[in-house]
Amino acid sequence: MSNIPNLNQADPIPESAREEIGELLLTGDLFRYTNDQSAVLGLEQNFARKIGSSYALAVSSCSAALFLALKTLNLRKEAKVLIPAFTFGAVPSAVVHANCIPVLCECGTDYRIDLDDFLSKLKSVDAVLISHMRGHTSNMDKILLHCKRLELPIIEDAAHSLGTTWRGKNIGTFGQLGCFSFQSYKLLNSGEGGMLVTNDPDYFAKAVVMSGAYEHNWQKHQGDREFFEKWQNQLPLYNMRLNNLSASIVNAQLPYLDQRVENGRHNHDITAAKLSGSEWIHVPEKFEQEARAPDSIQFNLVGLTPPEVSQFCDLINTMGIKLQVFGHSKDNARAFWNWDFLPVKYNLPKTREMLRNACDVRLPARLNLDDCQNIAELILEALRQIKNDVAA
Ligand SMILES: Cc1ncc(COP(=O)(O)O)c(C=O)c1O
User: Residue 87 CA: which ligand 1 atom is closest?
Assistant: First the structure.
């Protein structure tokens, strides 16, 4: 048995959250609109500043942010929205929830959008939702260029990309709207929660109203009065607000974000370097434009038969490492063939093949050098045992 820490354990919430939470418990002011200056508004202002966006709207989840982002675009019923086939099931679900049809695009062995398939489908869609799955950034230069040419709006699902940059600019700020998650296991964790960012005052006002700013509660948001007045009573109220408790918990973690990003990148790169020495593993390179903020590592098994992949999964888990192969476990929510709720069935051989060999291991920012080396060593040892090859 190993001395690997529990990789599924979340990080402790900083001590600084306690005072604010204690105050909230005393007053009971958990609702963001009770006071003019709430913890939620404070978080929105801090987040917008940190990410370099004009406006931020805190909501109940990233899925809620994706749904609201789609609704602000005012797409027709059954509009087609292009998404990567490698993403979490909540993403096509948000598209379906917004009365649109997800169009799935192939992803390559580097986990990013396959540009040939992307381009071949682009002309037939009404909007693009780029999910930077597990923080792997698709080629934003190309995506922006082609979407601009066809005047297609882009929503970024940056659930796993907080702190990731492309040419020095934060992921989530390239599209018309960007969406982040504070669900457990993200770099900022409040159990549940999300953030929608945009530079567009009109989109922002629409999203604020639809998030549940009933009557004149939009006055307790950043933003311009003229846009809010324009949308007053014109849009449904979906009530997807964040509460003050969750906001206080995220606010307390924001000052640690840069350090977490640095630690996560360091942990990832050490582990990746060690794993890359094996002939049975391929760790895809990042783009040179990209500075990643990983809290997990993905790598592909090479030359293993399906039964060997099964044996590897069983063995590594008995060694104390929680590892999943996305396309291997039954009903995995990241395997597109399990999304039976889709109106259209997809046959995407590239993505399917990638998912059958793509491994996923959490690497929380709190791990140290020894932890990362032990994790890599155990993965290599499991492969040696499966392949019975000392040189693995
Ligand atoms: C890629 C991706 N997008 C969106 C979401 C949805 O986030 P939330 O749980 O905050 O709704 C998740 C969930 O982890 C995710 O993995």
Answer: 1
Each residue of 4-45: pLDDT tens digit?
889 988 889 999 999 999 999 999 999 999 999 999 999 999
Could you tell which of 63, 86, 187, 295 is best to mutate to test the pocket of ligand 1, judged by most ligand atoms within 8 Å of the CB? 63
Phi, psi (degrees; rounded to nearest 5) at 286: -85, 165
Atom in ligand 1 nearest the alpha carbon of residue 134: 1
pLDDT (0 to 100) of residue 392: 47
Ligand 1 lining (C-beta closer than 6 Å): 61-63, 87-88, 90-91, 131, 133, 157, 159-160, 181, 183, 194
List C-alpha distances in Å: 87 to 42, 51, 92, 126, 287.
Answer: 31, 23, 8, 20, 19
- Ligand 1, atom 8, lies closest to the CA of 62
Structural domains of the chain, with CATH:
17-255 (3.40.640.10), 257-387 (3.90.1150.10)
Of all protein residues, the one whose alpha carbon is nearest to atom 15 of ligand 1 is: 88
Q: Is 284 exposed, middle or buried (0-12, 13-18, 19+ CB in 10 A)?
A: middle
The percent of residues in the chain predicted with pLDDT above 70, rounded, is 98
